[in-house]
Design brief:
Elements lengths: L2 E5 L4 H9 L4 H9 L24 H13 L3 E5 L4 H16 L3 E5 L3 H4 L5 H11 L3 E5 L6 H9 L3 E5 L13 E3 L15 H18 L15 H10 L6 H15 L5 H9 L9 H18 L3 H8 L3 H32 L11 E4 L8 H12 L3 E6 L4 E7 L6 H11 L4 E6 L3 E7 L3 H15 L7 E5 L10 H8 L12 E13 L3 E8 L2 E7 L9 E13 L2 E13 L1
């Protein structure tokens, strides 16, 4: 797999302005390279959030929900079965109950019901909950048939979602989604949980207007921000200025120990310290344990973890979720081995996409396997598992420059009837096709890949922030960096420079341990998952890491990529 190191262009004037505004000189350069132009964009205060009023129909949603609460109408939340869906459901439940709503929830089973508000889910909801109103969280924008089915039963639907709409919007009573047509909300990157949080802010303001609460007696919604931060990071949405505020505020609460019992229990079971919480912990330790429930069993377990205030119960569920996650990892490892066997003859030079199916695969884990294959081969990848009689379900992950949902849309227009249904966004999407159509789909998908992707786009590029001055190879600079909110679309700093390779050895048969030298200074470095040795001099792209050993903290370089000089 061809990989090259590149340095992000950094507009000098912008970095100077940030530096003059009081930003650390290296951070000023890093921020400017990520498109930041104003010190105010770095504010992580809640007062800097974009106000809810810009979200299309949010006031209508607030009035409708306030009327429903006043009329004691029964609401049921229909959630999605991933981490964003679970946190959005818990946020909606806690927020609506705090405002006096009579509200319950139901979660689709990934294998039985499929995704979103389907007619089947409406039937189940009517049977088990008999609601007057259904509120969708993190789904619903594509659920035209489901909303129709609900309306026929006399149930009104409020859709809150962030996924991209299809050609037809569902006939819901209200839709709040920053990505619906003509919505002028500047942060199109809100996760499902972010949209719900905004709806709650608008509803609370409406109830204040009606005199139900005043500024003193109103429910505090900032105590939901740990859930909002977790869902936002785990859903890998772009951390624009608005999302960074939501995540920073949630992380601040976690570090101060002011989080829900379930979030605290998930930190503990993952062996992470909440007082040092980072977006990395949410994305790679806490989130996956919550996600595992929706992948293999029932996300209701995850939602109960986030909605219980009983610490003992939260801990018991967190341990269960941890067990499910271990099982998920085993299944994933097996599926990945099988996938690599399928792709034994795969020649990246001949293909711009990957589509692979195995009848032994588990629907709940194909997304992660697609992700791993995409990382390995750097190709838009869709993995398929059995999805009911005669059908297979696919989960796709993409690379920059290839919009996954638009690609599926184009396939469905070029070959009508090939795709039964699909949905998603730029970097991830899901679909259902007939088993017999797999080969035809593979060809049609590859045709889009060939048309859209250049050879240069199929090379993995490690984007770096260039060299780092000697004095900033320090634990204090690492602490400063760790205090910022990095993530999707706002990448953590990666530096790049030339080093002499003084020594190298292989650790545990799979990692390369290095001693590097530059300007007379020596640095320990490690390249995880890589065993090929380097020559005497190398150009190294690396992240800084504070490595604690025997009570001494030293700077270590985590190698992202290296090439001989």
């Amino acid at each position: 797999m061809k990989t090259r190191i590149s340095t992000r262009p950094c507009p000098f004037r912008q970095s100077e302005l940030l530096r003059q505004g009081g930003v650390h000189p290296v951070l000023a350069r890093i921020y400017a390279a990520r498109g930041l132009v104003d010190v105010r964009e770095l504010s992580c205060e809640l007062t800097a959030l974009v106000p809810p009023s810009g979200l299309k129909h949010i006031d209508a949603a607030a009035v409708f929900l306030a009327d429903a609460i006043a009329a004691r109408k029964k609401m049921t939340i229909v959630a999605d079965y991933d981490c964003d869906g679970a946190t959005a459901c818990a946020t909606a439940l806690r927020g609506l109950r705090a405002m006096g709503a009579e509200v319950d929830y139901i979660v689709p089973d990934r294998v039985v019901h499929g995704y979103g508000l389907t007619p089947d889910i409406v039937e189940l909801t009517v049977r088990e909950k008999s609601p007057d109103i259904i509120v969708t969280v993190d789904n619903g924008i594509a659920s035209v048939d489901g909303v129709l089915a609900a309306n026929q039963r006399g149930i009104e639907v409020v859709v809150t979602d962030h996924h991209l709409p299809g050609d037809t919007l569902p006939p819901a009573r209200v839709i709040v989604n920053p990505n619906q047509p003509e919505c002028g909300f500047p942060s199109k990157n809100l996760a499902g949980v972010g949209v719900v949080f905004y709806v709650l802010l608008a509803l609370r303001a409406e109830l204040r207007r009606r005199g139900v609460f005043d500024a003193q007696s109103q429910p505090k919604l900032d105590n939901l921000l740990d859930l909002v931060a977790l869902g936002t990071v785990a859903d890998v949405v772009k951390l624009d200025t608005n999302n960074r505020i939501l995540v920073a505020q949630g992380i601040k609460r976690m570090r101060a120990g002011r989080m829900h019992a379930g979030v605290a229990a998930l930190f503990r079971v993952a062996g992470r310290e909440a007082r040092n919480a980072s977006p990395f912990d949410l994305g790679f330790a806490v989130g996956p344990r919550l996600n595992a429930a929706g992948r293999l069993e029932d996300m209701a377990l995850g939602i109960e973890c986030l909605t219980t205030d009983d610490e003992g119960r939260a801990w018991a569920i967190a341990q269960q979720l941890n067990e499910i996650n271990l099982k998920r990892r085993e299944i994933e490892a097996e599926m990945q081995d099988t996938a690599l066997l399928h792709l034994d003859a795969f020649e990246p030079a001949d293909a711009s996409t990957i589509a692979v199916f195995d009848e032994g695969w588990h629907q709940g884990v194909i997304g992660i396997v697609a992700s791993r294959l995409k990382e390995k081969f750097f190709r838009p990848t869709i993995t398929f598992a059995p999805g009911g009689p005669g059908l297979i379900k696919g989960s796709g992950r993409s690379i920059p420059g290839f919009h996954m949902r638009d690609a599926l849309d184009l396939v469905s227009k070029r070959v009508p009837g090939l795709i039964e249904k699909f949905g998603g966004h730029a970097m991830a999407a899901g679909l259902t096709i007939k088993l017999e159509s797999f080969d035809a789909f593979q060809q049609a998908f590859e045709a889009v890949g060939r048309a859209w992707l250049t050879q240069a786009q199929l090379e993995r590029v490690i984007e770096t922030d260039g060299p780092l001055e000697d004095e900033f190879y320090s634990t204090s600079f690492i602490e400063l960096c760790d205090g910022q909110v990095w993530g999707q679309g706002f990448a953590p700093p990666v530096f790049c420079d030339e080093f002499r390779v003084l020594s190298q050895r292989i650790l545990k048969e799979k990692h390369l341990k290095l001693l590097l030298e530059r300007n007379g200074r020596r640095y320990d470095a490690i390249w995880f998952g890589h065993t090929e040795g380097l020559g005497e001099r190398a150009r190294v792209a690396f992240r800084l890491d504070a490595n604690e050993y025997n009570g001494v903290t030293k700077v270590q370089l985590l190698v992202e990529h290296a090439e001989p000089v």
